[in-house]
From TrEMBL:
GO molecular function per UniProt: 3-methylbutanoyl-CoA dehydrogenase activity; flavin adenine dinucleotide binding
Species name: Caballeronia sordidicola
Biased composition (Polar residues): 410-421
Region (Disordered): 404-428
Domain Acyl-CoA dehydrogenase/oxidase N-terminal: 22-115
Superkingdom of origin: Bacteria
Protein name, per record: Acyl-CoA dehydrogenase
Length: 428
């Protein structure tokens, strides 16, 4: 595959206006719970959603570090956007990892033209089985899809939905047109943050799907092959959090520079000249720098393993190491960005809590992102690795397994509750 890509400077220039426009509408969208359809359309039209697609398919072929730098800037403009395209981004990485050339040709070409993929893979808490079923249609060229998924992030904005389902033989992933008859998408996500990600319910009622849109089949008993996807998905969250830290610093500086009063003493001191305010803003700057530096380090590690895979020089230890690195970064970035989003209010007292400003959205969004993946479970996995050499999810990792799969949890039906490595570690 072609690996040459534009320079960072060229990429920043290319997307500067896109980020600016998205950022200018972020507060109004938050205030009105207005879905980010226009912003997503800009990402598609500008080629942002095809950044990782190789040039021979019509994309930009950027490296993983370049992609995560741009994703951080997008998160600074509006943290809903990186999450909206998170499953789509992982779908591209899965195609890049796969040996299925026909699937790469079919789907990467579509993505290069601006089509995106949402996910319908997760069940509501309390569900014990994969509720979406696939049965044969009277025409053997088609199957019928029935059931419901929640946490279907990005699906409202996408042309395609990657659905985790099962039939009488196995679990599978099937790609469904989002506008197909029988597909219903609902914006009923009720989290207090990341409100515009449309992470709600998707229902399938006798949806007729061409059988050649079954992307993969797998059995819950089969081992998961080595993959970068878990670390990749986590790094998307980390880049989004780093973007929030940048937005916190930006909004803190703008707030202080526009003020003429400090700590209730009107007209006698400028906040921007107050050494206490200097300390707060200095801390915000340091936290943003640290978060971004950790994302950069993990992205570089991902790129090294990605390149080693291309040259067939990758080992199981390489995959384990990058997972551990992503998990370790997670522990620090979460705490630092939540600290920054709280510390922001120290620059302005009660006036900073005005709902007109919605500065609380940074904390709310960071807190919701921090809740998607099990940070405490992964912290324990890191400790177990250092103490005992136990790799995360070791019983699911095989170096040379041909399977594109593993389901991590099983219900009474025997079908997977959670997804295979098509969406390993997605959270939502």
């Amino acid at each position: 595959m072609t690996t040459s890509a534009p320079s960072d400077a060229a990429l920043y220039a290319r997307f500067a206006e896109v980020f600016k426009h998205i950022g200018e509408g972020a507060l109004a969208r938050e205030q009105n719970r207005e879905l980010a359809s226009d912003a997503v359309r800009q990402l598609k039209d500008s080629g942002f959603t095809a950044l990782r697609v190789p040039r021979e398919y019509g994309g930009s072929g950027v490296s993983l570090p370049q992609y995560f730098r741009l994703l951080t800037r997008l998160g600074e403009a509006d943290s809903n956007l990186p999450q909206i395209i998170r499953a789509h981004s992982g779908f591209i990485e899965q195609r890049l990892e796969s040996d299925d050339a026909a699937a790469r040709d079919r789907w990467l070409g579509r993505i290069a033209k601006g089509e995106t993929i949402g996910a319908a893979t997760s069940e509501r808490i309390g569900s014990t089985h994969n509720s979406v079923t696939v049965i044969s249609d009277k025409d053997p060229a088609y199957v019928l899809l029935n059931g419901e998924k929640y946490y279907s992030t990005g699906t409202l904005y996408s042309e395609w939905i990657n659905v985790a389902a099962h039939d009488t033989q196995s679990d599978l992933h099937v790609l469904v047109r989002s506008d197909a008859p029988g597909v219903a998408r609902h914006d009923d996500w009720d989290g207090f943050g990341q409100r515009l990600t449309a992470s709600g319910t998707t229902r399938f009622d006798n949806v007729r799907v061409p059988a050649d849109q079954i992307l993969s089949r797998y059995k819950a008993s089969e081992p998961r092959r080595n993959s970068l996807l878990t670390a990749f998905y986590q790094t998307v969250h980390l880049a989004t959090l780093a973007g929030i830290a940048r937005a916190v610093l930006r909004d803190g500086v703008e707030f202080v520079q526009g003020r003429t009063r400090t700590f209730g003493v009107a007209g006698q001191s400028s906040p921007r000249d107050n050494p206490l305010v200097h300390r707060v803003v200095g801390r915000l700057g340091s936290l943003a720098y640290s978060a971004e530096a950790l994302v950069e380090a993990v992205a570089a590690a991902l790129e090294r393993v990605h390149q080693a895979r291309i040259t067939d020089a990758v080992t199981t230890a390489d995959y384990v190491a990058v997972d551990i690195q992503a998990y370790q970064a997670q522990q620090i970035v979460l705490e630092q960005v939540l600290e920054a989003a709280t510390l922001l209010f120290e620059v302005g007292g009660a006036s900073a809590t005005s709902e007109a400003r919605r500065l609380d959205r940074h904390w709310r969004n960071a807190r919701v992102i921090a809740s998607h993946n099990p940070a405490i479970q992964r912290e324990a996995a890191v400790g177990n690795y250092h103490l005992n050499g136990t790799a995360p999810n070791e019983r699911f990792s095989l170096a040379h397994s041909p399977a594109d799969n593993v389901a991590k949890t099983h219900g009474s039906s025997g079908h997977a509750v959670t997804q295979n490595d098509e969406f390993a570690g997605t959270g939502r």
